[in-house]
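Before relying on records like the one below, remember that each one covers exactly one chain. Contacts with other chains, cofactors or solvent are not represented anywhere in the record.
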Amino acid sequence: MPFFSDLQAQLDALRALVGDVEAVAVPGAVSRLGDDEVVAVISTVSALARACESLRIAASGVVAARSTREAGHSGLAQKRGHRSPASLVQELTGSTRADAVKQVRLGEALSTSHGDGVDGAGEGVDATEGSVVVGRPWHAPLSDALLAGAITAAQHDAILRGLGEPPAPDADGADSVDGVDDAADRARAAEQLREVWAVAAGELVVEAPHRTVEELARAARTLRDQLDPEGAQRRFEERFRARSFRMWTDADGIHRGTFSFDDHAAAWVRTIIDSALRPRRGGPRFVDPTEKARADELVADPRTNEQLAYDLLIDVLRTGALADAKAVFGTRQAGVRVVISAAARAAVADGRPGVGVLEEDQSTLPAWLIEQLACDTGIVELRIDRDGNPLHLGREARLFSPRQRVALAIRDGGCRWKGCDRPASYCESHHIDHHAEGGNTDTDRGILLCRFHHMALHNGGWRITRDGLGDFVLHPPPGGGETIVLKPRLALTYAWAGIDPPPPRFRPAA
């Protein structure tokens, strides 16, 4: 359907739902609608807003193209008294500086994919079929999906920034590819990597309707690091060099401080705080009596979460290496749990780069650092298939064992309910075949759910089924809508695929 005809159809649908009322009467008109109609209003307005947003982004890209440094004072933004296109867009839209910069960035991406002068010299990927399309940049699938209304501007930006630019082999060897000896070979390798990035962008577009913006951004970064382990190592080192801590006293005499964390330190501090505050943030209910008593005390504590986090970190600093772990953390001691494949460990042993992922949020760490940590804390070996399914660790016990919990965390990555971002440490293990009805406590019949969604499932008439090792399927109560496929964390889909650039699944067709 033509662009403006589609807009008119959306407007007609809204008029039919709400009525042709004055602006001041809109809240009252919507309040008189039924539940399904209210949901339809939000859905239709969102589709309309996405279409209008794509038009504004396209215009922002034109503003940027007509406001270059070379244009000088005759540039579009400059003629209107602005130093940059983002400044003009900010004034016109009334948005924040950051939002205006994002509008311009996305507009420039659209221009390179669909603007004047694109005549077939480049590369790209069709967003729906995954086939290579000659003549377009690697991020063309994102532009196609944005213009078609398949993804939002926020999803487009999350994927674009998360994937970043593919590495470009050069004469100095930076981002070099093994076996590349001359300029022609480097050019061919660079083209292949751009095609790999294009297919990755297309895959993330397909996943976008089922994922939150935050998960898409994490998955894009993790996928980038899987595809480019050398770049991942460089980025880790850059963040490590940028680590810092600064204290100062402000004009009111309040002592303040700020951290810039490296990846591992950030994960360590986050797990310390999460371990201590888990009962406040919806942690699992099925704990031993000692921990439950401590959790009840924490919930009743009058301090805010921020004050508790502060006091905890000060206690850790005071006690240092001689801390009594149970006195500080209770029965669940904090710790960073990382997951690494056998292939990545083998790469480290051979002196090649590799990456692993943090169990909690699936962000990456260099494989050599994970191996270093294993020297101090040891490893738990677990065999899984390429979809992350643990291979038969089931037990005939009522509750899942700690080892089974590890297996579920590695497979699921956290709460499997659509749109939920709770990490594995906040989740409870749900038997999809009720134990009281003869269900076994096997990992392939268990799934991680956060406390809220676990209770919603049992109390709201929902149920989860699974055919063998296929997808987990969530069935709503009668009249509650369509069934929902419960997908694992997107980053894990790639982590268990044995990705090593250019991986077979991303390798363009000959």
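The longest helix spans residues 35-65.
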